Amino acid sequence: MQAMTRRAAVAALLAAASVAGPAPRVAAEDADRGATLFRYCTQCHGEQGEGNALALAPAIAGLPAWYVERQLEHFRSGIRGRHFDDIAGMRMRPMSLTLRKEGDVAAVAAYVASLPPADPEPTLEGDPARGQQLYATCVACHGADGAGNQQMNAPPLTGSHDWYLERQIQNFRQGIRGADPADTFGALMRPMAMTLPDDQAVRDVVAYIMTLPR
Length: 214
Prior knowledge:
Layout: H1 2-19, H2 28-37, H3 42-45, H4 65-77, H5 87-96, H6 104-114, H7 128-134, H8 139-142, H9 162-174, H10 184-193, H11 199-209
């Protein structure tokens, strides 16, 4: 059954690569290696990358490979995961360092991108109507539909847990994320997060994001 699941994931990844236009073609053996490497990730992120709140592990299934690859490299280099208040990041950093061989990061990122996106249930109290107004600041990069934009280095927001979105926005606001001089993309996100005046505003904008189609 596991072999069939892996083959299905590989087939889906190759099909996606064939219609992705400028995206690089992914070899079947690389996708298969990504599935093997992903076994180490399942203890926190789940078999299908659906995430686990108890492990502080977000849903990652279906995230674009370019974004997953960049974040893994950030964890590996210490751009993410070194701040004392980033408990989840400090857990993730040593895991990223297990990807030692050339091509490992790209292979596991490609496999994650091949997984069906998650559809987490909302868990936070927020006002989506007010959040829609606040989200206007996010549209230029993340899109009106929250689908993200690689040209703007903005990942999709849909398919994420609301608790994870809230925590990351707060991390950007507090300088836990995005303050490292080498994090050029995080440096762009941090001032955007700081436009949210208080914690309730953060919950409101997250509540709106959770209403967007997955």
